[in-house]
Amino acid sequence: MINKIPSYLKNKYTITIVTFVIWLSFFDQNNMMIQVQNKMELWELEEDKKYYLLEIEKTKNDLEELTTDMKSLERFAREKYLMKRDNEEVFVFVTE
């Protein structure tokens, strides 16, 4: 039985390396499954970061426009807060 095992599998260094790789792959605290999950989470967080940076830039541009242009400020107030002049009526259509 022992004679049928190839000599390179009997080598203590090979056994040690194979055991070490198996241990790191499946049983260690930072095994391969956890590493893959962490990489995927990192990718999702980076995508979220790009989205929020774009949203911040849009908000800064809107703020700059609202602080410099009174017509855009009036339009914003009318659309977002339903403000109106004294002689106007506001109709709100809700889509279902």
What would your notes on this structure say?
- The chain is mainly α and 96 residues long.
- It is built from four helices and no strands.
- It has one domain (2-81).
- It has helices at residues 7-10, 12-27, 32-68, 70-81.
- The longest helix is centred in the middle third of the chain and has 37 residues, at 32-68.
- The radius of gyration is 32 Å and the shape is rod-shaped.
- The N and C termini lie far apart (76 Å).
- The mean pLDDT is 87.
List keywords for this structure.
96 residues; mainly alpha; rod-shaped
Major beta-sheet overview: none
Q: Kindly report how far apart the N and C termini lie.
A: 76 Å
The helix/strand class is mainly alpha
Q: Write down how many β-strands occur, each being a DSSP E stretch of 2 or more residues.
A: 0
Percent of sequence in beta strands: under 5%
What global shape is seen? rod-shaped
Helix content: over 70%
Mean pLDDT: 87
> H/E order of the elements?
HHHH
As residue ranges, the low-confidence spans are none
Helix tally equals 4
The number of domains: 1
User: What Rg is obtained from the alpha carbons, in whole angstroms?
Assistant: 32 Å
Secondary structure topology:
Layout: H1 7-10, H2 12-27, H3 32-68, H4 70-81
Helix pairs in contact: 3-4
Quick recap:
The protein is an all-alpha fold.
